[in-house]
Amino acid sequence: MTAENEPRPPGGRARFRPGKRLLPFPYNQDLSGVLRHLDRSRPESRVRLANDPFTAAYLAAGMRLLERNLGPGAQRGPHGKPYLLSFLSQRGVADEVANNPRPFPRRGTARALRRAWRSQSDFVADLINFAVWRENYRPKYRRQRAANTRKLVKGPDFVRAVHEMAYEHTAEGVEMPSVRLALALMTSADGDMEVKRAISRMYEDYLGSWKKLYEDVLRQRGLRLRPGLTLDDLANALSAATDGMILRAVGDPAADILDHERGRSLFGSVALAIVHAFLEPEGDESGLTLEEAVAARFDNGSY
C-alpha cells in the first residue's frame, strides 16, 4: 500500500478500529466527511461509525449491488424491467454483506444497518456520496483527466482537447453505476429530501472542480463571458449537456452519441458550441449579450 493510500484520520488524531487499515482503497480512508447521514448526534460518534469496518461492509455491499443492477448488462426485474432502487432495500443490502470479499466483515443484518442509518433514504444518500467521491474514480481516468486539463488550459489544439475530454468523460459516465444511479434518482426521488440534498451536494462538489478549470481556461486563453452570463451558467450548461448525452447513450445506443472508433462524442460538438456562444476574446469583445448576438445573425440585429 502506498503512502498516499494510507488512512487519514480527521486531524491525524482519531484512531480507526481494528481491521480498518486492512480494507482496500478507498474504504480504508477517513469517510467521516463523506458519510453525512449516519444516525449519530455527537461528532466523535459519527467519526467512529463512519470509519467502522462494519460500515464499510455495508457500503461495499451497496456498491456491488449498484454495479450489478445499474452497470452495463444490469440485471432485470420481472417482465424484463429494471429493479430501479428496490435492490437497495435494507434487507437486500444486509444480505449482500455475506458476499463481501475478505477482509470486509461478512455478517450483516437489516437491524444492524438501521443502527447506522435510520432509513433507507439515509443509506442511499450516503451511498451516493461515497459512489461519486473522487477517490472512487478509476486511477486511469483521473490521470487522463489531468492530462486533458493541461491541454485545455495551455495546449496548442483546444478543439481537439475538448473532443478528447468530452469523449472520455461521456464514455466513462456511461459505464459508471454511480453516474447511472444519480441520473435515475433525479426522476425517481421526488419528495425524498435527503436524497435530493445528496444529489445537490454532489453537483456542488462536482461543478466546483469544473468551474476552477473553466476559470483557468478563460484566464490563460484570454477569454471572457458574454454580458449577462456567469461561470455558473457555463458550468451548468455543460453539465446538463453531459447528463443528457450520458442518459441518451445509455437508453438509446443506436443514437451514436459515442463514436468509439474515432474517440469522439456528440457532446464534444455541443461543448464547443456552448463555449463558442458563451465566450468572447478579451479585448476584442462585441459587448453583445447572447440574445443580441443571435439576433444580429438571424434577425438583422432586432432584439
What is the fold-level CATH name, i.e. the topology of the largest domain? Answer: Tetracycline Repressor, domain 2
Give the beta-strand count.
4
**Could you estimate the helical fraction of the residues in percent?**
55-70%
Taking strands numbered 1, 2, ... along the chain, how are they ordered across the largest sheet? Answer: 1-4
Give the overall silhouette. Answer: elongated
> Count of helices?
12
C-alpha termini separation: 62 Å
Mean pLDDT: 85
Provide the β-strand percentage band. Answer: under 5%
- Assembly annotation: single chain
* Alpha-beta classification: mainly alpha
Quickly count the domains. 2
Summarize the structure.
Helices cover 56% and strands 3% of the residues. It has helices at 43-50, 53-70, 90-96, 110-116, 120-131, 139-154, 158-175, 177-188, 193-221, 231-251, 266-278, 290-298, and strands at residues 223-225, 258-259, 264-265, 279-281.
General description of the model:
There is one protein chain. The chain contains twelve helices and four strands. The strands form two sheets. A two-stranded antiparallel ribbon has the order 1-4. Strands 2-3 form a two-stranded antiparallel ribbon. It is elongated. It has two domains: 99 residues, no CATH class; 162 residues, Tetracycline Repressor, domain 2, CATH 1.10.357. The protein has 303 residues and is mostly helical. β2 and β3 form a beta hairpin. Helix content is 56%, strand content 3%. The N terminus is likely disordered.
